[in-house]
Specification:
The structure is a single chain. With 291 residues, the chain is an alpha/beta fold. The protein has 12 helices and 9 strands. The strands form 2 sheets. Strands 4-3-2-5-6-9-7 form a 7-stranded mixed sheet. A two-stranded antiparallel sheet has the order 1-8. Strand 5 (121-126), helix 6 (132-141) and strand 6 form a beta-alpha-beta unit. The chain starts with 5 loop residues before the first helix and ends with a helix. 40% of the residues are buried. The model has no long low-confidence stretch (mean pLDDT 97). The structure holds S-adenosylmethionine. S-adenosylmethionine (SAM) binds at residues 24-29, 53-56, 59-60, 74-77, 102-104, 126, 128, 131.
Length: 291
């Protein structure tokens, strides 16, 4: 069954009395080469367990099922579950498991911990656009030691995830992501490769998660707060932005801590990379401990 074929997609949807649900970000892939490339990129080991978020009618799930030992496909739309039972019937026995859940509520440890003993666990998804960042943050913050997270997302968001410090696309999400791993943009996919076609192009990003994080802030919460405050007031200098966020630390102290980390006193937050944010947050933590 060619699930990239537009006629087939339409027939399946009408057979099951379904329409594309915009509120679930349903834009199904219609280009087999793109689907195969995403499935190939997702891991370099067959013995991988893949968490797929939003299988839709199963186009990517089929390809993942041919390549990897286990595929756990979490789909929110109850109407698609019987469709998936039909479209995935030829997958190798026992490989694909479909779970009807909202990924934002799934207990990721309960689902994935049993597979971590068997081999690497990775994520692969053509993500629903309305909820890309919350899903990504949930995966990163879960503490599940994913090897890779390979996701199709809006091209503009992909540029943000892969931006260099100081560039126009660099933001809080980039600095936070770089704490957990390294993001690489693999390829761009134009809007015409989906049904229905979204308004903007997409891109596939692969994140390699660090086993041992190279940056180790003294206090994770202060580190994340430092990044958040720095970007909440992007036009302000870093010392102004941080003094709004950390009212207990006098502004002249913040300025001297910034200088103590080797920056100009009027630097803006967007110029700092993840390690520099960690060093600055450590300076704030140490100052607080002594005052
Ligand atoms: N993987 C399919 C493909 O590439 O053609 C469908 C991708 S479509 C962009 C996003 C899918 O995610 C839809 O099937 C949608 O129903 C599902 N979805 C949306 N929100 C979800 C959530 N919170 N949890 C799980 N699945 C979700």
């Amino acid at each position: 069954m060619n699930l990239c074929d537009i006629r087939t997609i339409k027939d399946i949807m009408s057979l099951y009395g379904l329409s594309f649900r915009k509120e679930f970000g349903q834009n199904f892939l219609t280009n087999k080469a793109v689907v195969e490339d995403i499935a190939d990129a997702c891991s370099d080991t067959q013995g991988t367990t893949v968490l797929e978020i939003g299988p839709g009618i199963g186009v990517l799930t089929q390809e993942l099922g041919l390549r990897y030992d286990k595929v756990l496909a979490v789909e929110i739309d109850r109407g698609l579950i019987p469709v998936l039972r039909y479209t995935l019937q030829d997958c190798p026995e026992g490989v694909v498991e479909v779970i009807n859940q909202d990924i934002m509520k799934t207990d990721l440890h309960a689902l994935l911990d049993p597979y971590l003993e068997k081999g690497p666990v990775s994520v692969c998804a053509n993500l629903p656009y309305y909820i890309t960042t919350p899903i990504l943050m949930r995966l990163l913050e879960s503490g599940v030691p994913f090897s890779y997270i390979t996701i199709m997302i809006q091209a503009e968001v992909a540029d943000r995830l892969c931006a260099k410090a100081g560039s126009k696309d660099y933001g809080a999400i980039t600095a936070v992501l770089n704490y957990y791993g390294e993001a690489e943009k693999l390829f761009r996919v134009s809007a015409g490769n989906f049904m229905p076609a979204p308004k903007v192009d997409s891109a596939v990003v692969r994140i390699r998660l660090y086993g041992d994080k190279p940056v180790k802030p003294l206090d994770e919460q202060v580190f994340f707060d430092t990044i958040r405050y720095a970007f909440e007031q992007r036009r302000k200098t870093l010392s102004n932005a941080l003094s709004a966020g950390f009212p207990d630390v006098p502004k002249d102290v913040l300025t001297s801590l910034i200088e103590g980390c080797g920056h100009r006193p009027d630097i803006r937050g967007e110029r700092l990379d993840t390690a520099q944010f960690a060093a600055l947050s450590d300076a704030i933590v140490t100052w607080r401990q002594n005052h």
